[in-house]
DNA sequence: CAATTGTGGCTCCTTACGTCA
DNA sequence: TATGACGTAAGGAGCCACAAT
């Protein structure tokens, strides 16, 4: 009996995308829901592999279609100074990297945004406000205090749209090169650091789930082996009992006490399975008793 | 050409916060 | 309303690969 105990190739595991090369382009992401290239893709100057615009969350689509199809709460909310300050606070932990590669891309204080969909306005408001209006109402002042103190770590909750967008990207490639990271950050109006962290955490979650699946698989293997061991122990007892009750077999080499491959039972008697010649052979080989039986059956002198 | 150094990305572990039952 | 469990964004340490010196 052979058991495959490979951690590396568990075909049942639902993470096939992990094996995809990270340099693959994003074919799916180039398409809209209708399967047509998005407007942004048509006009984008980015290299094909890093085009991340599209999907239901494409800012172009949002800007071209009414929000009735894809409700975007933050697009309908007023954009006042308070909200901008909230964004600044949220982005505080990621400022170090923005300083050199992404600050200008997603700066909420920028009066002219190149992106029709301003994710920045939702970082705190849309998501929280949508679920808990009361909490949202008190958010601005509290955040402002923390912002001035600069001592409290603020935590950003990505919107469902942003998370879904990142998920789609993750399905295509679990790691990002700098260009892809920047493009995605630009697309979602997040800092590159936030995108990077999201992918890191996402990989960690995937690995954790994979570990759980592997653990479950090994657990089942262990149970199977335990059962097999129990069965073999039982058969060993049968063998020993047979050895005690039938001293005739004690004269034979140990190899003559074999197990029938067809029925997986100890060969105390010739197997009746006429279709398994090998089993019959095993049962009769080197057996004086068997030779006698053969001689009698076929009239062959022994 | 080998050693050193700086940089960026990764994993792993942890913390802090938001949400929900 | 308070609370604990859970999910997750983010910080930090350590490691590695790679390019520049």
From TrEMBL:
Residues covered by region (Disordered): 1-47, 97-156
One MF annotation (Gene Ontology) recorded for this entry: sequence-specific DNA binding
Superkingdom classification of source: Eukaryota
Start-end of Basic and acidic residues biased regions: 130-143
Signal peptide: none
Residues in coiled coil: 215-245
Biased composition (Low complexity): 104-116
Stated family: Belongs to the HD-ZIP homeobox family. Class II subfamily.
Name of the protein: Homeobox domain-containing protein
Species for this entry: Trifolium subterraneum
């Amino acid at each position: 009996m052979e058991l495959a105990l490979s951690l590396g190739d568990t075909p049942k595991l639902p993470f096939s995308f992990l094996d995809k090369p990270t340099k693959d382009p994003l074919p799916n992401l180039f398409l809209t829901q209708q399967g047509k290239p998005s407007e942004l893709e048509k006009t984008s100057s980015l290299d094909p592999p890093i085009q991340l615009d599209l999907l239901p969350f494409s800012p172009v689509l949002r800007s071209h279609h009414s929000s009735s199809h894809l409700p975007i709460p933050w697009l309908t909310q007023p954009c006042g100074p308070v909200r901008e300050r909230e964004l600044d606070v949220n982005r505080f932990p990621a400022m170090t990297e923005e300083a050199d590669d992404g600050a200008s891309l997603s700066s909420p204080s920028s009066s002219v945004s190149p992106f029709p969909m301003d994710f920045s306005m939702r970082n705190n408001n849309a998501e929280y406000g949508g679920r808990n209006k009361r909490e949202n109402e008190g958010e601005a002042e509290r955040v402002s205090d923390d912002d001035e103190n600069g001592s409290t770590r603020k935590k950003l909750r990505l919107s469902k749209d942003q998370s879904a967008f990142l998920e789609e990207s993750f399905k295509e490639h679990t790691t990002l090169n700098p260009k892809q990271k920047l493009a995605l950050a630009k697309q979602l109006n997040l800092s590159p650091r936030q995108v990077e962290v999201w992918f890191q955490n996402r990989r960690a979650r995937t690995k954790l789930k994979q570990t759980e699946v592997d653990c479950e698989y090994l657990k089942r293997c262990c149970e199977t082996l335990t059962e097999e061991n129990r069965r073999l122990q039982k058969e060993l007892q049968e063998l020993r009992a047979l050895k005690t009750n039938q001293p005739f077999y004690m004269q034979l080499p140990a190899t003559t006490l074999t197990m029938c491959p067809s029925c997986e039972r100890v060969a105390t008697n010739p197997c009746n399975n006429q279709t398994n010649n090998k089993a019959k052979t095993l049962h009769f080989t080197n057996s004086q008793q068997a030779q006698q039986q053969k001689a009698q059956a076929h009239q062959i002198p022994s």
